[in-house]
Amino acid sequence: MRANEYRFFIKYLASYLVILLIPITVLTLVVNNVFVNKLQDEVISGNLNSLDKVRYLMDDQLKWIDDMTHQLLTEDNSLTQYRISDHWGYKAWGITRELKRFQRLSPFIHEIWLYYKDENAVFTSNGIYSIPVLAKQIYTFDDLSETQLVAHLQDLQSPAVLPTKKDEISGDNYVRMFVPLFPTKNQSEGTLVYLIEEEAVHRLMSAYHTAAGSAWMFDQTNQLVTGMTSANGPSEESVARLITQSPLEDYQQVMMDGSQYYMFSMQSEQSGWKYVTLLPVNEVMARVSQAQEWYIYGVIALALLGGAAIYIGMRMNYKPIYQLRRDSIQVLANRARNRNELDTVRDALNHLAHHNKELDERVKNRALAARSHLFLSLLKGEYEETEDMLEYGQEIGFPIALANHKVRIMIVQLPAHSDTKRAPSIEAMCRLFPDTCSVFGIEHMEPGKYVVMMARVEGGDSETEVCLQAFRDTLSQTLQAPVTVGVGSEVVISDIPKSYLEAQTAIGYRFVQGVNRVIDYERIPLHSCPQVEYPHSEMAGLQSAIREGDTNKIQGHLALIVTFIKEIQPPLIVARGLCFEMIRLINGVWRELGLQEEHGPERYPNIFALERLETIDEFENLIHTISSDLCSAFENQQVLGTKEAALDARSIESIMDYIQAHADRCEFTLQGMAEHFGVALPNLGQFFKDRTGQTLLEYTTSLRMEKAKVLLTSTSLQLKAVAEEVGYNNVSSFIRRFKQLTGVTPGEYRSIRLESDSSLSNEGDIMQL
């Protein structure tokens, strides 16, 4: 590569290295002032929070002791009934039981003593003892002889806490709290004593205590209650002396026993007790120093690794750019080759963007053509499955959600003498509708006429009428000419042809009502006349006869329909709708039964041709043509019907075996199966349904779906491969049919079964364990 070709590489490499060094430098300068201080603040905050938790837990226990003492001071407390008893055994049993109950309410308290001055014994939560026995045989403390115990029990005038001492008998350390009982303000009635194991207090403090630090607890008189310290920690005497001589602050640095400590302290507002923790300064700062050291190492490593990564990344990333320049030169063969990489690629992108814009315009035009074709198919009723049309509409972005709305068809008629060149395009015309309307339109074959589909408008017929009138007024003002709109009734998707015929009838009624208005089919006098009874029974009989392949019945029902038209003489809208329904019925039944038409569906008129039929004779000729075609089709099938008498109970097994052997082949058809057995498909289908209760199509589909379920759960084949394995060339048709029968798509079914199998496997493993 020439040096000129490295120009951008060197430029961007240097800029990236500068970008990397700037934040590293800034961080290095401010880390000691921000990060270190922040770490110290975190240490202080964390220690104070932990200390506050210890204070809260200890206050909670002291409050419980205080509450229990107040309960025993009430005039009618739980001990009264036992104390006034003359029966000594009952009294001793009752008081001991109550004290035991109180003691069990707080695991923090090891034992409770109760001494009344008018009694010769001390009641405890574990029994009743005389003072000598209690002081010498039950508990023995070196700071609480029998004489001292008597003094505390009889002469104590205020609560007192004795520091932690070891019981010589049990070997355990206890904190002893003496609380005088003053039912009146002048004279003490007795004394309550609470024995608290030092271990219980240490458990509260253990959440804070660290290996190198120490924790201490002082009562309201600054007397040391208990403490936890390491082997190298400060002595009790030094801590006690510091507390009594120095005013306490939340956080301060102190010198003790030749070492520097961070001292954290907190005093309870409830009890007046003080909680103090000491941490060696060198331990706290060790974390800060370690953080600084690791930070320096990290900065150096980051600079080295970052620089190397940038260089390697630039080298790797620059190769595609250089290759892209070479490819761009090939795209722009007529451009100069001495342009730099970015300019060359920019020119290539502009060139491609121009071509993409042209391609996008072509795609949009094709999408518009696809939507127009869908609209024509809906108008003509030329589709097999409604769901196929709904899915196709979503794929091509049809502006009306056909699955969620009823629609109506309208025909917009411009005056014959108007200049069609001045008329707006159908897209611009649709934009004249209010925003609350969802519409789509196409140009009619006749000049000056347009067909528009409009979705249901929220607000009902009144709001629809307002939208239509607003559209007509706007279009009329735009063209400076009268505009007439014929509107059909609101229908579901399958009845769109009917709404079109009604709109055509309404637009034709302009010769009576006048132009430059909206004409609603449902409001014209023709529609208001008594309704002609529609020949539903004849249409149903015709459908049944076609399925049976009975030419005599077919001709009979068609003759009844002709008689209906001649004798009743219904309006043209009814006759046209009748013929359209008959044509759609015949085409649908033939598709369902697999019969092949010799001339195809184009032999019969579509919805636009039907609107040009204006006499009864034309309708009669059309019906006779349909009758002739049906009879010819079924006569051609009769050659295969000579073997129908051979169908018996064993034939049904042969048919089922044949379907099971061939149903998963894409080339399998019901018509081909009928030819294999030498029986007309309608008769074969009726025979199979009479014997099994299922149609041939239902049985075939069920076999395919069962095989699909097995493939979905036992293999990892893609859906397209699964569809082909069960006889579907079109994966969309397979997915739709699978969902119709199971309620879920094949992908969802596979996921559900895999999750279910996984759960069962896990349960099996658990049962084995």
Automatic annotation (TrEMBL):
GO terms for molecular function: DNA-binding transcription factor activity; sequence-specific DNA binding. InterPro entries: CdaR_GGDEF (IPR041522), Homeodomain-like_sf (IPR009057), HTH_AraC (IPR018060), HTH_AraC-typ_CS (IPR018062), Tscrpt_reg_AraC-type_HTH (IPR020449). PROSITE patterns: HTH_ARAC_FAMILY_1, HTH_ARAC_FAMILY_2. SMART domains: HTH_ARAC (SM00342). Residues 653-752 form the HTH araC/xylS-type domain. It comes from the Bacteria. Keywords: DNA-binding, Membrane, Transcription, Transcription regulation, Transmembrane, Transmembrane helix. Gene3D superfamilies: Homeodomain-like (1.10.10.60). It holds the Pfam family HTH_18. The chain crosses the membrane at residues 12-31, 294-314. This is AraC-like DNA-binding protein. It comes from Paenibacillus phyllosphaerae.
